[in-house]
């Protein structure tokens, strides 16, 4: 069954939705699934922009065949060689042997790593600023290394002003009929998953995303076609501002995220006490997470949103509790910067987790670690009320 979608008079979405997948990249929970986007442009020449995950190749081939309606496929533009977008290349070549593959030299090398076919026979290598005329439409190729792999480019179509943006501007979540972002309640229904996708997949590469945004600012863009999730044709400035903020590691809100590791509930109680006192001081949109219950990808994404971060961990095996250790490692690995950080530790005989947590963050830029930390011995006692208030005050003042 042809499941393609017409986006403009000449451009079609020919991808697929995957709601069966549990873990994207075998790491990230995707309870709302994910889409693998591929686009087909019809002109004097025809061009397919990227392929999709192997599991849905049959759907791609059916969509492409239906939209081509007997025409040949002239070009396959490969913007990104990660298998969720490149896995169907060999199947496309088998079905359309006359096709030329347009990609960077690095992408061609990766193609040789992933596939057995004679890559050089098919590839037309392109570099920054090269163009390709399809007839009425002209493609310009823009290099975007490390957004999210080194071979990545994006493609700008100059006539309809469409940016095929590879992984940039995507989101977790399958497309539920409404394929344009402006057809959805995006800020409420999609933004958290778009943020989680960005921070976890591309968040480490902020400077490279900034470089792409700089190039994009010189283009007049009427539509953004990412490799995952919804297509953008309105409110592009809002989306670009979000990407500018995330990629520069600037928080979206002056508020507090509290992540705690607790085995018997005493550390959780302290985290709740801090959250309640901050709320009483008027702090909105506070986030509290149990690191043993919430996948770190969600907490990392909210850490990109919040300006102050509080980590409360029991001491475990003379170190940080394992799930907290994973979270802190993820935050450090994604280069989060420009935050106020506070630590709280608990230990019945030798609390040491503050020292270890502080060490984990030592390499991160512009992290202001508050001097006021809090040590609990087994449970937070009433006599520690002043220390708790001092910590809360210090966190609160950081929001000013
Ligand atoms: Fe959706 Fe970097 O692949």
UniProtKB/TrEMBL annotation:
Residue ranges annotated for the Flavodoxin-like domain, each copy included: 256-400
SUPFAM superfamilies per UniProt: Flavoproteins, Metallo-hydrolase/oxidoreductase
SMART domains: Lactamase_B
Gene3D superfamilies: 3.40.50.360, Ribonuclease Z/Hydroxyacylglutathione hydrolase-like
Family: In the N-terminal section; belongs to the zinc metallo-hydrolase group 3 family.
Name this protein carries in UniProt: FprA family A-type flavoprotein
Organism from which the protein derives: Alitiscatomonas aceti
Origin organism lineage: Bacteria, Bacillati, Bacillota, Clostridia, Lachnospirales
